[in-house]
Amino acid sequence: MAELPTAYAVNEANPEWLNKGDNAWQLTAATVVGLQTIPGAIILYGSIVKKKWAINSAFMALYAFAAVLVCWVGWAFQMSFGDEMVFFWGRPDFALDQKYLLAQGFAGLYPRATLVFFQFVFAAITVVLVAGALLGRMNFQAWMLFVPLWLTFSYTVGAFSVWSPKGFLFEAGVMDFAGGYVIHLASGVAGFTAAYWVGPRTSRDRERFPPNNILLMLAGAGLLWMGWSGFNGGAPYAANIDASLAILNTHVCTATSLLVWLFLDIFFFEKPSIIGAVQGMITGLVVITPAAGWAAIIMGILSGSIPWYTMMVLHRKISFLKNVDDTMAVFHTHAIAGSLGGILTGFFAEPRLNRLFFGDDPRYIGLAYALKNNQTAAGFRQMGIQFAGIAFIVGLNVVVTSAVCLLIRIIVPLRLSEEEMEIGDDAVHGEEAYALWGDGEKFEIAQRNRMFDAEEDLQSKSVQMTDRF
Prior knowledge:
The protein is mostly helical. The chain has 21 helices and two strands. It has a two-stranded antiparallel sheet. A hairpin with a 2-residue loop joins β1 and β2 (about 90). Involved in ammonium transport.
């Protein structure tokens, strides 16, 4: 019979500071967020593009998820949440150490191992969102280099500055509950900047780029929506009342945003668009992310209308926006929506909810409540800090993303060749998304063989008829 664990072992596995409920919820939330990428974004990207780009688009997300994890435990987590190297950046260090991982994390009543995994899935989906702007033309080898470089020199800076208790924007009072700045604004600006350097798709793809499977696209979008329960619900670092409010408000805002976008499409274009509804869903999720507070319906109305206006109206009028080929419109759905969410957070932040997350710090108050409570200076200060956070994340990602792209193109081409872009997956990966296999043949090859066989049969019958006469 195996020996029972010693009391020492039991105490080591269950230290006094460990809250099992919080730990279980945080691991669950992290897993749900991970499912947003694997398989959520894979399904969404692989189905929302042309058939010839299905594998390449899905593969970009799959590769990013794996590469980010290795970099994250190798050095990036410590750069995001470890010891300060400079006021906006952490010191690189190895996180996959037993003693380090078993100690209590900087937030929450659970070990660092839980925190490392939870923050990893946020980092991974951020890089995958950047990929959305580059689908259909980026050299896969260039993408393989882009992921670790951008994670190291851009994402870690934003995460440390805004989320780490030692970061200068965190200390200044920037409110970013679950990633409106660190994830969505960063990925939107970085994706748009990278799209500028990589260049556009072929003219044929830009003119017509229909989804190859709308039902699968909806399945991927649905995984994103439901996964946001872990995205915003895990942000309080505990299974508490704040998590409950965050989850409910997230879904209310998202549903409102989807409906507003849908009604605008019907009113102005006379047709309800399923792709438009998905865009409205995404902007609702993004705008509520830095807040997840009481103003969910108001934020949903604004998230369904302002990004709709920038995408459907302004984008067509501003030549610079038209010239940059942002495949998934991440500039509008993430950069614009993330900025909007940060601004609305500074306006609607309710003091009682702020205390649930920030404690008794009087600095955190939305302008609307500051005006009501005769704290006007504090309210305008918070709005100013929110705008400062936007400016920092935008500047950081324009500069770093440009530098990364310029460095990579010295090593390998950023773009695929014209021939590869015409053919797509088969030229780039030697595989096709919807190939039907029989006796080791692809559908197209088998089809050509059947046509050749049919022609031979006709010729044979013709010869037989001739011989008879």
